[in-house]
Specification:
Radius of gyration: 21 Å
Shape: elongated
Strand content: under 5%
Number of helices: 8
């Protein structure tokens, strides 16, 4: 399957998560957690650690700052609300499902194919003067650096990215794979987005 089509279907699946009802979202999140735990457990745990502060912020902001009925009747002003906890669970579930999807995608699709798919999808940008091959190559280099850089390395702080450095692989040759979208790939992509649009408007 074309890597660009894989990305399109992945984007459609991630977008559809935002349209699920609370019950369907709970089932989908549980399935995503199970799949990520089997197919991409180490990567999923790393991503989960990186978004733990965001998850905590979602729970605190929605649970404690959403008007509604107090969950603990003894804490009318200090405790969370029932409506807030429901919203916190909804948005936290969406975030967890997306993190699972990202982990599985990065685990099962190599960086080269991922960038090749983004290049294929970004080719229309050439019409407005944006070279897609440069964007793809820059993304490939960034992803390679992020994957290779160990935790706690010298350039782990955001300020270090602004500082010039002597790169060990400055003379490395980077190959950008180019995959062409076929008629079947385009048809499947149009069907996926057409169904997603119909679902969102229904």
């Amino acid at each position: 399957m074309h890597s660009g089509l894989i990305l399109i279907l992945w984007l459609a699946a991630v977008a559809s998560i935002q349209l699920l009802s609370p019950v369907a979202l709970a089932v989908a999140t549980a399935l995503c957690l199970a799949v990520a735990g089997v197919l991409a457990r180490p990567r999923f745990l790393r991503l989960l650690r990186r978004v733990r502060v965001l998850l905590l912020a979602i729970v605190l902001l929605f649970a404690w700052f959403t008007p509604g009925e107090a969950f603990f009747h003894g804490w009318l002003y200090l405790g969370p609300t029932r409506e807030g906890l429901a919203l916190a669970a909804l948005h936290a579930g969406r975030l967890l499902a997306v993190v699972c999807a990202v982990a599985v995608l990065l685990e099962r699709l190599s960086l080269e194919r991922l960038v090749a798919g983004l290049y294929a999808l970004g080719r229309p940008l050439r019409l407005i003067g944006v070279p897609p091959e440069r964007l793809a190559l820059r993304l490939l280099l960034v992803l390679r650096y992020v994957e290779a850089a160990p935790r706690g390395s010298v350039r782990s702080q955001w300020r270090d990215w602004l500082m010039p450095a002597q790169e060990e692989g400055a003379g490395e040759v980077v190959v950008l794979n180019r995959e062409r979208l076929g008629a079947l790939d385009v048809s499947i992509a149009l069907l996926a987005f057409g169904y997603l649009l119909w679902w969102s408007l229904a």
